[in-house]
Model the fold of this input.
Amino acid sequence: MIDLRSDTVTRPTEAMRAAMATADVGDDVYGEDPTVTALEQQAAGLFGHEAALFTVTGSLANLLAIRSLVPVGAEVLCEAQAHIVRAELGGQAAVNGITMRTWSDPRGLVDLQQLGDLVAPDLGPFLVRTAAISAENTHNFGGGSVQPIDVLRGLRSLADAHGLTVHLDGARLWNAAVATGVPLPEYGDVADVMTVALSKGLGAPVGSLLLGSGECIRQAREWRKRLGGGWRQAGVLAAAGLYALEHHVERLADDHAHARLLAEACAVDPGDVDTNIIVVPCADAATVVAAAADEGVLCSAVGRRSLRLVTHLDVSATDARRAAGVLARLLARWR
Ligand SMILES: *Cc1c(COP(=O)(O)O)cnc(C)c1O
Done:
């Protein structure tokens, strides 16, 4: 099976497993796991943030991030298809007690005009108060789209002008950095608090990181424990993350090349494929998904009229070419 449903389906490589098996570990709730600490310090350094916290999921990292920026009853502004508003099962409301208002863009991009109209830091004691702005880079449901760094800087200035803070959901920020060549600290600069995933394109089995100030991370560490996310010898997982940072970042360029190849076969405008996600319009997505599975290619239907393909570490160039052939043939019938 060639699995194009998501970049979360990767399995740890032999070399990554070896790094996990030989990791130095300790009790991370006591702050005594040297491998977890090394991962947190390295990640914070990469983005120019003071500190980092290793978490079991990106959803937990985003919960802790928004909690640190938005008081109960206040709001965060984000795009209408953002992961924090659509794919975390209402966790931000259920756990953090905050609200959201959204701007909308077909590719999930930051629209400074719409954003400027939404910002409401203090309209008196009758209207919800904006506390933070969140941007997702790359944007998952936007088709792996990259937020241009100039626009992110514009968002930062807008936030500063209104006394707001900025959250960056960077689950796939690695893909954005590799696709654009923008250095990681420049992304780090625009965010007060940010999250990055190790378990997507980087191919680690588990884990995300929350990055921010020392004080923010100190409080997030308490809340992580309070929510049941404190862990003990997590160094076996952090070792996979450290391995991924060393070996699996630059190679994301291969995933992007495979995505372009698939886009071409599926007659998708290459201008709509910035990184490793391809959204393919088609008449009957469920039928194409089933027919592709019969031919050994797994992809997902997003709604009734589009397919989603994601390239990753476990899809070789040969796999990508074979999947492209299968999908081109099926789409010719069901376009
Ligand atoms: C996957 C993802 C997350 C976190 O997902 P988990 O499955 O909880 O690790 C957060 N944001 C974006 C944009 C994602 O794609």
Observations:
- The longest strand covers residues 130-136.
- The first helix runs from residue 14 to 21.
- The domain at 11-247 is CATH 3.40.640.10 (Aspartate Aminotransferase; domain 2).
